[in-house]
Amino acid sequence: MRILLTNDDGIEADGIRALYKELSPDYDCVVVAPDGERSASSHSLSIHHDLYYRKTETGFAVSGTPADCVKFGVLHLLDSPPDLVISGINNGSNLGSDIMYSGTVSAAFEAAYLNVRGIAISLSKHNAPNEYYVKAAKLLHKHLKTLLNLPVGNETVLNINYPVRAPFSGIAFTKAGINLYNDVFVSGEREGGWRLKGVAVEHDLNEHDCDVELIKKGYATISPLKLDRNDYGCLERLKELNLF
Fold first, then answer.
1. Which of the listed residues 55, 211, 223, 227 has the most CB atoms within 10 Å of its CB?
2. What number of CA atoms fall less than 13 Å from residue 79's CA on the CB side?
C-alpha cells in the first residue's frame, strides 16, 4: 500500500518524521509536505502564484499549503496515486471547532476530494516531548488496517487526536465538539503589525462524549468527518415554507 504523508508543521517537523519512521518499514511511504510552517492554513490553495518543490530523502518539500501538497502530490509529483493520505502528526490538537482552521485536517479532506482515503492525526498538546509522537505513530500503525476496513467511503475523513495531558485510557469513536475563544489582536513582532491571540473560554456547551471532553480523560479520539456540509434538516424546512 502506498501512503502519502503530509502535514502543516513543515517537512522537518517531529510528527511527520515519527510517522515516516514508524510506517515506512511496512508501507510504501512518500512525504509531500510544506517546506515550512503552514499551521491554520485551513483548505487554502495556491492559485495565484507558482508552486515549487525540491526532492528530499523521503519525498518532496513543497512551497505551498498542506492542501497544495496533497493535490500537487496526487496529480503531478507521484508516478501513481497513493492508496491513503495521512496528515500529521500535528504539533497540537485539532479538536472540536478548531477543525475548520486546521491545515492538517484540510490536507486529509483534500485527499477525500481526490477520492483517496484520508486520515488526520494530532497530539493534544503543543510542543509535547518526542515520545508522544512515537506513541501516536505506533497507535496508528497498530490499528491502521482496522481503520481502513471500517465501513466508510473515501468521502469520510478520520480525525484522530492522541492525549498528552492525561494517562492513556484507550480509543473512542466520537463526534467533534465545540471550542470557544476570546480572540483579540495584539501588537506583532514588528512595528505596526498585529497578531491574533485566542484565549480558550470555559463553557458547558459540549456533551460528555465529544472529542473535546474525552481527550481530557485520556482517550485517543477518532471522529469521522464528511465532505458533505449540507444541513439537510434545514433544507427540508425551507422547502416546506414554500416562499417562492
1. 211
2. 2
